[in-house]
TrEMBL record:
This is Adenosylhomocysteinase like 1. CDD domains: SAHH. Residues 1-29, 64-122 are annotated as: Disordered. GO terms for cellular component: cytosol. It comes from Poecilia formosa.
Length: 550
């Protein structure tokens, strides 16, 4: 849910041969419609993805987490549930803690210490409490109501079972919305084993509901560092079952399989990755010549970038801040670090409520965009003593340093909307001279010797997904894209995809968008034959070239 500063992305080269192939794809795809009565032909769907251009490897290198690290702990209860959490780059952002009705603090015992069995007699799972199944099922049913496009895809493709034989191991946020995706994959024929990509993300009741339905889920809210990696290993390393597909969010699962089970990794038919960090890791492997399977970059699809990042964060930033601090934004001075898609959404939302918003940027293009949108572009040190709220959303590390934290005013709110917890130097705050006071769930007051307090939200992890909820409709867009990418990679004939990272074609982005237009009773204008000829387009799309920037 985040991006690098300025949303810098590798360029996509469009060779003349690929243009011709894209036109052929469009003609073949034109027979597919999105009306309620239409049927999807999986053979046609698979052919849409042929010869998809790939990104160049990005220059920025994301180093793998080679060793498990732990920060020094401030006072807390002993045992596995420590406030010294996983610092894996992907595991430290999270979906809603507020969304889960069953907080992990209700029961201090670890699920690893007890044996649970579902109604079918299976114990191949590890969740907080299997008895929460009914509650979780209601949550999933509510989510389905606002994920009509994904449910429509499930109903249309269910009879063909395009994922029959697929053994998918997934590492994502386990929420009601993700459960709808998992159950869609199962309905399409896949076997699934799942774990959480974040220690705070799991809705315990939803995990229980999935386990009751036979999905091997290993996740609970409030996992320790050791729990996090144990859950991943239990998903991958099980007798009589070997994954052939990976759906990842952040790259931890991919990295674990690559490092610990190289023989399994070589037999994977495809990887689908939805985060900036995970995509960077894949490009790193590709550049080093170590990526031995094809991978689909879902993160840089238009529907993911615009809707999951811009529009989603425009709403969820306010939700997270309000739930945790009850702050009134009118007249407050706020600095947003980074003016990519996430930064744009956050800045627009705060400005609309009357806040005075400053923006920091490293990219002159994004900086100019901020100026034209009415924001003052500054260096953080210029306003560090003045601002009431600091929000990071760059994807970088050490955006807010200890020196800057020392100079903040009393009561300053500090939070992160980027992908990982590296943006704020939280580790430097775990020192004896500073006192940590937990005032409510995901809200800590860090107290300096002189009495100054800085309000730190979610320990520097992803605010909206740790402290509030994300709109279900937005997650439907991302989940539909993920499902289609898995279908394509699994059904693609041998040789179509090399050992590289691929983008979804523009036509597929348009298809995902068209599935969701019905929610708004939207009616698109159709080109006449004359207009299509004048523009050099197929009447059924794609309507923009791959290099078009929305």
């Amino acid at each position: 849910m985040s991006e690098t500063a300025g949303d810098a992305k590798p360029e996509v080269k469009q060779a003349s041969k690929e243009v011709k192939e894209s036109e052929n794809v469009a003609e073949k795809y034109s027979a597919m419609t999105v009306s309620k009565n239409s049927e999807i032909n999986m053979g046609e769907l698979s052919s849409v993805f042929s010869s998809v251009p790939t990104h160049k490897p990005v220059k920025k290198q994301i180093q793998f987490v080679e060793e498990k690290q732990e920060f020094s702990r401030f006072p807390t209860k002993t045992g596995r549930r420590s406030l010294s959490r996983s610092i894996s780059q992907s595991s430290t952002d999270s979906y809603s803690s507020a969304a889960s009705y069953t907080d992990s603090s209700d029961d201090e015992s670890s699920p690893r210490d007890k044996t649970q069995v579902n109604s079918k007699g299976s114990s191949d799972f590890c969740v907080k409490n299997i008895k929460q199944t009914e509650f979780g099922r209601r949550e999933i049913e509510i989510a389905e109501q606002d994920m009509s496009a994904l449910i429509s895809l499930r109903k249309r493709a269910q009879s063909e079972k395009p994922l029959a034989g697929a053994k998918i191991v997934g590492c994502t946020h386990i929420t009601a919305q993700t459960a709808v995706l998992i159950e869609t994959l199962v309905a399409l024929g896949a076997q699934c084993r799942w774990t959480a990509c974040n220690i705070y993300s799991t809705q315990n009741e939803v995990a229980a509901a999935l386990a009751e339905r036979g999905v091997a889920v290993f996740a609970w809210k409030g996992e320790s560092e050791d729990d996090f990696w144990w859950c991943i290993d239990r998903c991958v390393n099980t007798e009589g079952w070997q994954p052939n597909m990976i759906l990842d969010d952040g790259g931890d699962l991919t990295h674990w399989v690559y490092k610990k089970y190289p023989n399994v990794f070589k037999k994977i038919r495809g990887i689908v990755e939805e985060s900036v960090t995970g995509v960077h890791r894949l490009y790193q492997l590709s550049k080093a010549g170590k990526l031995c399977v094809p991978a689909m970059n879902v993160n840089d699809s238009v529907t993911k970038q615009k809707f999951d990042n811009l529009y989603c964060c425009r709403e969820s930033i306010l939700d997270g801040l309000k739930r945790t601090t009850d702050v009134m934004f009118g007249g407050k001075q706020v600095v947003v670090c980074g003016y990519g898609e996430v930064g744009k959404g956050c800045s627009a939302a705060l400005k609309a409520l009357g806040a005075v918003v400053y923006v920091t940027e490293i990219d002159p293009i994004c900086g100019l965009q901020a100026c034209m949108d009415g924001f003052r572009v500054v260096k953080l040190n210029e306003v560090i003593r003045l601002v009431d709220v600091i929000i990071t959303c760059t994807g970088n590390k050490n955006v807010v340093t200890r020196d800057q934290l020392d100079r903040m005013k009393n009561g300053c709110i500090v939070c992160n909307m980027g992908h990982s917890n590296t943006e704020i130097d939280v580790a430097s705050l775990r020192t004896p001279e500073l006192t940590w006071e937990r005032v409510r769930s995901q809200v800590d007051h860090v107290i300096w010797p002189d009495g100054k307090r800085v309000i730190l939200l979610a320990e520097g992890r992803l605010l909206n997904l740790s402290c509030s909820t994300v709109p279900t409709f937005v997650l439907s867009i991302t989940a539909t894209t993920q499902a289609l990418a898995l279908i394509e990679l699994y059904n693609a004939p041998e040789g179509r995809y090399k050992q590289d990272v691929y983008l979804l074609p523009k036509k597929m982005d348009e298809y995902v968008a068209s599935l969701h237009l019905a929610t708004f009773d939207a009616h698109l204008t159709e080109l006449t034959d004359e207009q299509a000829k004048y523009l050099g387009l197929n009447k059924n799309g794609p309507f923009k070239p791959n290099y078009y920037r929305y």
